[in-house]
């Protein structure tokens, strides 16, 4: 992921971790080649929805250059 995109996610971490239900974007992220089923299983092991959203962002930060665009499309 590009550093500018990483910074956008970091600046919006509070809002994303509060408002985002990772399950709502899993299908689009898997279809877009950003997440694997193993990623979603690991995210699902976190306790609260907020923890799951934070873990999703952490995983996205380590993904390739297309991850941010696919994530933004998934949020639409």
UniProtKB/TrEMBL annotation:
InterPro entries: CARD, CRADD, DEATH-like_dom_sf
An annotated GO BP: regulation of apoptotic process
Pfam family, one: CARD
Domain CARD: 1-76
Protein name stated in the entry: CARD domain-containing protein
Gene Ontology molecular function: any one: protease binding
